[in-house]
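Q: Structure tokens for this one, please.
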Amino acid sequence: MLDLVLAPDFDEAAVAVLGRRPMRKLLANPALRAPAPSSAEHWRMIRGGWLSQPAADYVLDLAASRMAPGVLTQVQVLALCIAWAAAFGSSLGGNEIAIAHDGALLAAGGGPSTVEAARIALDRCMARGHDCRGAVFAADAFFPFDDVPAMLAEAGVAAGCAPTGSVNDAAVAAGLAERGVAMAWLPPEIRGFCRH
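A: Here is the predicted structure, written as tokens:
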């Protein structure tokens, strides 16, 4: 297991607390104080050619999201950050969906559709004995239909985040609201693979 904590630096009190775990590594990098995201264009291979897309230089900003319904707890916000980092930083085949709970990533999945990605993530949770009740999810693609939100809600997720941009955003949001899933709807420019 990899147990790393990265920060610009650590004071003695932080080292005392974070260093209690014998296998944990504390890595200080002063450059993290002012990260300079890449502005280069990225190329991805697709069947029959290449796809150009801008660098993923965005940072999750829940203040810029549209929240509905409910209020996220601090524990859910932390789990949401973990799920979002996994979904937006992975290469599982596109349309990534990640599920996190209590400060830990439970599973992530990707595939040719959000349905497949959600199915893989949920199957991985079940295969490892994780309970999704109360968990949160993050998706790197918008939901064109209510199928995936219904799957996630049925599994027991309490909250999630996904970018907007589908013509069915209103219907999908209404379905999640009816199921009591708190959502952070991200701006449409914050989308994952291909921005398709």
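A few notes: The CA atoms of residues 98 and 108 lie 4 Å apart. The helical segments are 12-18, 74-89, 114-127, 147-155, 169-178.
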